[in-house]
Fold each of these.
Amino acid sequence: MLTRSEEDHLKAVYALLLDGDSALTKDIAHRLRTKASSVTDMLKKLADKGLLKHEPYYGVKLTAKGRGHAVQLVRRHRLWETFLVQRLGFGWDEVHEVAEQLEHVADDKLTDRLDDYLGKPAFDPHGDPIPDRKGRIRPRKTQRLSVCRAQESVRIAAVSETTDGLLRLLDSKGLRIGTQLTVLEVHPFDGSMDIKPKNGASFSVSKEVSHHLQVEPA
Amino acid sequence: MLTRSEEDHLKAVYALLLDGDSALTKDIAHRLRTKASSVTDMLKKLADKGLLKHEPYYGVKLTAKGRGHAVQLVRRHRLWETFLVQRLGFGWDEVHEVAEQLEHVADDKLTDRLDDYLGKPAFDPHGDPIPDRKGRIRPRKTQRLSVCRAQESVRIAAVSETTDGLLRLLDSKGLRIGTQLTVLEVHPFDGSMDIKPKNGASFSVSKEVSHHLQVEPA
DNA sequence: TCCAATTTTTAGCCTCGTCTAATTTATTCG
DNA sequence: CGAATAAATTAGACGAGGCTAAAAATTGGA
Ligand SMILES: [Mn+2]
Ligand SMILES: [Mn+2]
Ligand SMILES: [Mn+2]
Ligand SMILES: [Mn+2]
């Protein structure tokens, strides 16, 4: 049985490896709003438990066992987010903190039944894939909207940052998972982009926003 | 914000006061499977926070504030139990441990929406009343089956102990919340009781069982 | 190459929640 | 009443998980 803190560290490592492919002590500390010295201790502990390998200055790698724990944690997090939005009517900008707590209730029967109850959803409210009970994740080939060129037509597949501010901004512009849009123009000066949603007037989004939108061919 | 341990101590005090009307250090320790010395420390801390008053050898009394926290914890516990049974198909003997964890996710929005989602249930799967969002509890006048006399006809309102063994025994005899039955005979020798459920053959139950069945007039 | 900046670790301290063992305090009973 | 018993507290320890400040290790730039 892992403690909450152990779980959170594993999840941080897992997330850093996914989108940056290295997990350094200082980055883990930053992500968990803690200090590097605290992370050093925890990495030692997790390495002793056979959940990861740590090479200073190079980074952390998860063992199969460690990755398994991380994936199950992600599974629980995303299932709860889905429950909160689909069943309890929460907004997609309101679920992260609560799911951050619920994810630590580690009970396989609970997790699997919740999964069934929700209809074994493939994606959470932010478009992120939900691992199945065996930890398998349906792969998708998406790219950031920010790398798209003028004239491309795409569909929003996921939001790769789940801060309230971004999510509410997207809400206010009518941009959500599944929204189809065409890139009209990209402005090299600031990286901003003019886009036109399929059903709506065109407007522009900043680089900060387009960077966090994962899209797939429409 | 209370820690998990603080919450569990408050709940233990609350429960002890409800069905014994005193809460002694040693009883709290026994209920939480911990030691009296640990409880002493925690009581000091909770008293400092204005959640309870402690008089050694006499017992603990909750302040309004402390009772409020305890009642909200009970509310969350029973709502989750209801969710697990009604929505996820858990047996009533399988929910306690999980609810013991879920109850500590303290988020008013979550609790209230879960309550709505379940249709503001008045009772949990064990027949225990669920406090409403203001902490109000619908009062009921029930008594233990063990104090009933021959010929009395009653309805099972609640099970006042939620150990797996008892619940599974009741399941196997077809005794559940709402079951109507008539007391045929009480045997003074061992306190066992012959009963006849409305729809079923008669059989006998031990004192241990009848003691934990709360009934109301049929 | 070698120095400066960055990253990581170490050392020492702290709080929280728990424990055991010893002690104190209250209650109960002969 | 006074002794035995029961209940509670105190004292001291420990592990988990965090912190700061200082030291050590590595990297990378001039
Ligand atoms: Mn978490
Ligand atoms: Mn998500
Ligand atoms: Mn609990
Ligand atoms: Mn219950």
Amino acid sequence: MLSIAEENYLKAIYKILEKTGSKEASTKLIAQEMGTSSASVTDMIRKLNEKELLNYEKYYGVSFTKEGLKYSLDLIRKHRLWEYFLHTQLQFSWDKIHEIAEQLEHVKSEELIDRLDQFLDYPKYDPHGDPIPNKNGSFTFRTQFILGNLTEKNKEFIVLGVRSHDSEFLQYLDSLVIQPGRRLKILEYNAFDQSHLLQNEDHKILSISNKISNEILVKEL
Amino acid sequence: MLSIAEENYLKAIYKILEKTGSKEASTKLIAQEMGTSSASVTDMIRKLNEKELLNYEKYYGVSFTKEGLKYSLDLIRKHRLWEYFLHTQLQFSWDKIHEIAEQLEHVKSEELIDRLDQFLDYPKYDPHGDPIPNKNGSFTFRTQFILGNLTEKNKEFIVLGVRSHDSEFLQYLDSLVIQPGRRLKILEYNAFDQSHLLQNEDHKILSISNKISNEILVKEL
DNA sequence: AAATTATTTTAGATTTGCCTAAATTTTGCT
DNA sequence: AGCAAAATTTAGGCAAATCTAAAATAATTT
Ligand SMILES: [Mn+2]
Ligand SMILES: [Mn+2]
Ligand SMILES: [Mn+2]
Ligand SMILES: [Mn+2]
């Protein structure tokens, strides 16, 4: 059993590896992600190395061991299942759930998360569209496009998720009725500033900058 | 915002005051309840006194301040609401819920507990029959009897709760179909050893020692 | 009212997770 | 290759929460 601090380091490393696509995470990036000093990171990764959750070579960053990766995936699973619970059962808006899930994910009980999974009917994606690992740590993949890359007029899409989880961004999307499961139609695409003119499910016309559209994930139809 | 350790001390003190009916809790009893040394208790109660949650007079134990009592009641509320959730929604048996609620009760979010309360439809009693304080910290009382004190033949009762939360005791009651909401009928009372012969809801005949019956709370009808 | 016992507090350490500053090592650049 | 910059580790310290042992105080018994 790991402490909350140790678990948060694992999550930070997972997030870095996911974002950079690399196999190793540097002390610097971990410190940045955790909001701590590099010295603290060195202390902690040495400890997690001793617990055989991280492969650590002095001066060359860390990678996950098999057990470290599985532990991280379990944390991601717990976090996203709790987010799903908060959103679908307790009606929390999607900009409020992350912070609470950050606490709930550290509750230690395998049976709890298994029963929660069953209670929620084994959801595959969280309220932000991120995949939820199953008990074995495997994700369900799906083809998805970044709205910002789509330019075809009159084409219709279903929102799948978002790439930014920024609270204000999510609230803004709420105000535009752009949420997972909602429909969007491209009315116009402006190649000069890469902005879109969209129609939402409520037939409202929306003008969206590429700053926004690049953070929205959709599928056709 | 208090640390988990600080919160657990408040709960321990609450439990002692409830059990002893006294206004002050001694260092010794707190240490016993927490499973720590008296020295640790002295350190902590001095800290909680500085935070104005406890009234503390050196060598004479502690009592709650108004804020300390409210904080404790909020913790009891969270604990019991989570237990109710685990039992009624996730189908955990009543002997498993306490341990998990001990973790969940420390999640910090007032909105979370308010929404959970609403989701569960404002339950007044937890799965062990203990009252759940409302948002203002007030309990709903009800008249209840200790089964061990009841001797009248052929009288019928509804189980309301239990006074011991021991896991093995609860499992034993499960095996006898003695659970909150279930009916019980007194077939015989033996004054010599104070044992009861009962009939449960499944029409099974049960012989119950006073050791057991003294831990069961019931109401008439 | 002493003396003994029980309880509580103080003193001094330990562990965890964090910090800053200094030393070391690697990396990038001319 | 050599030097400067960047990253990392080490050293030393701090706060929280714990411990054991010793000292102080209160309660009980004679
Ligand atoms: Mn999240
Ligand atoms: Mn999410
Ligand atoms: Mn409980
Ligand atoms: Mn309970």
